[in-house]
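Pasting two entries for a bug report.
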Amino acid sequence: MTTVATPRIDRRALLKTGAGALFISSIPIPASAAPEDMQAAVKETFGDGPIQEGRVALSIPPISENGFSVPIEIEVDSPMTEADHVRRIAVFSPRNPVSTLINFELGPRAGRAHVSTRIRLAGTQAVLVVAEMSDGSLWSGAAETVVTLAACVVL
């Protein structure tokens, strides 16, 4: 009769392995996307139309201490009449896990093409804003902010 020896797990080895696994899993890994992801999101939202620079004023702090709540203000140069108004404003990020941050839908009854909110950012980056006018033209504006504490991390 042959006896097969079963491996024995030592208590110290088990504790070391568990402590190592706990330590590794507690390190936050930044979640990020590539700039190509942002371009794909812009194309998915607005199609293949040409995007011109201008008419979109974007205000964002040059340095954001906390990426969890970054204030952003957007104003589009438009008379907001029935014949000429902003139809949609979208904000995109090249580094966040999801590139499309927010979509606003407006109409001539909005009175002014001005919106403000707070967004989460996964680090220093240039935020892109694209506005679609009632005639189908697309206009953009961008601004960069330095984020000292990133918000989008995977735990």
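Entry 2 (this is the one that rendered wrong in the viewer):
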Amino acid sequence: MKVAQTLYEGVDLGGESYGLISYMRTDSVNLSETALTDIRNFIANNYAPEYLPVKPIKYASKAKNAQEAHEAIRPTMMSRTPESIKKYLNNDQFKLYEMIWQRTIVCQMNPAILDTTSIDIQINDALFMLLTSIFSP
């Protein structure tokens, strides 16, 4: 939480301090319309079209006593990719920010389609297994 607090309060990104994540003491799964627009625009501009769902994905909390006064934890700007600000963050800050950024992006992408092929070859007492997977959006 100390590391998250520093990301929330602000990090100097080369002369100016910016809060990099939204309020982190929440268990909400809701994202603001502004955040959804930012996330979807980033996906549309940086990934293949098939990654972007037709409409925003909305989630419902499963917790009975969820504290949802704040929106879900997310980057304040999707254009601040982890790699673009890595030089301004310490290792712990980078790892946490990268996880938050990645989870935010994928929560608004179409699910992956996985095609798996498995081949078992037995020669005498030896069993050889080959597993291949192909991912696509």
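Dev reply: Rendering is fixed now. As a check, the viewer should reflect this: Strands lie at 11-12, 17-18, 113-123, 126-136.
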